[in-house]
Design brief:
The protein is mainly beta. It has no helices and 24 strands. The chain has a single domain, classed as Neuraminidase.
């Protein structure tokens, strides 16, 4: 299984907007600033960077996501030589392997996760370990599942020879609905009120309503922007940026309605941010 550690951002000279527009909370991300890819946290202004996960060897740890209560972090790790979903406490301790797979996301109640295994998306109950396939057999190359905050819907991307598309599907299973299928769309993530999805194209970030009717370019500057997520208050979007698809990647934040971005990090490569209150 190839886990998601690919080109995700773009270089831009540091541009500031007032710190008062940056919401409170904690950001979790992965970084190679100490060599191997491990999980880190930082304040929303980029300060107080702290390494959470450690360990000798060349295994990778990426795609961290806070649990709804903020007490745990779901991540993808190749510890032991095979990609799997792991759970650690918010301070990085108590690592526990859940199952094979990658690209995991929590349900809003924290009782289930949705994730990718092979080319399919599955939902797993964390209490009893039962799993249910979410995407139909005819859907190949599915990725990047994201659970809506009301718990009813999961957004995801699907790739075929002609390109990528965004879909939504009922969280309990059902027929997927196409949202958008142009410009290599992938990596959808919900706004806190579920009114918008932020997603990436080949080089930029956009927002779109779940019905696909209102599509708007969010980033308009040079380079490559990837993996956008809304801040807890929905007023900002944090994302990865690099000079090219080869990186190095840094974290930036931009107003959710568009505007000037502000760089948060500048050491090594920093990717896949998630933001809790």
């Amino acid at each position: 299984m190839t886990i998601r550690l690919i080109c995700l951002c773009c270089f831009l000279s540091t541009i500031h907007y007032p710190l008062s527009t940056v919401a409170a909370g904690t950001i979790v991300f992965c970084s190679n600033r100490t060599g191997a890819w491990r999980i880190w946290t930082a304040q929303p202004d980029g300060s107080a960077c702290r390494q959470l996960t450690r360990g000798e060897g060349d295994f990778l740890e990426v795609d961290p996501v806070f649990s709804p209560d903020g007490k745990s972090i779901l991540l993808t790790s190749t510890r032991g030589g095979k990609a799997g979903l792991w759970r650690v406490r918010a301070d990085g301790t108590g690592a526990e392997r859940i199952c094979d797979g990658d690209q995991g996301e929590w349900s809003p109640d924290g009782r289930r996760i949705v994730f990718r295994r092979g080319e399919a998306l599955l939902v797993r109950d964390l209490a009893d370990g039962t799993e249910k396939r979410l995407t139909p057999e005819g859907f190949a190359h599915c990725s990047a599942p994201a659970w809506s905050h009301d718990g009813k819907t999961i957004a995801f991307a699907c790739r075929w020879d002609a390109g990528n598309a965004l879909y939504t599907v009922p969280a309990d299973g059902g027929k997927p609905t196409k949202v958008y299928d142009e410009q290599g769309a992938c990596e959808p993530h919900w706004s806190p009120d579920d009114a918008l999805l932020v997603y990436e194209t080949e080089v930029h970030l956009c927002t779109i309503t779940p019905d696909g009717k209102k599509n708007r370019l969010l980033t308009t500057f040079g380079g490559v922007q990837r993996y956008g997520r809304f801040s807890p208050d929905g007023k900002s979007v944090i994302f990865c940026q690099g000079a090219s698809e080869r990186g190095p990647w840094e974290l930036y934040v931009i107003p959710a309605r568009g505007g000037r971005p502000r760089r948060l990090t500048e050491d090594g490569s920093d990717m896949y941010p998630d933001w809790k209150p």
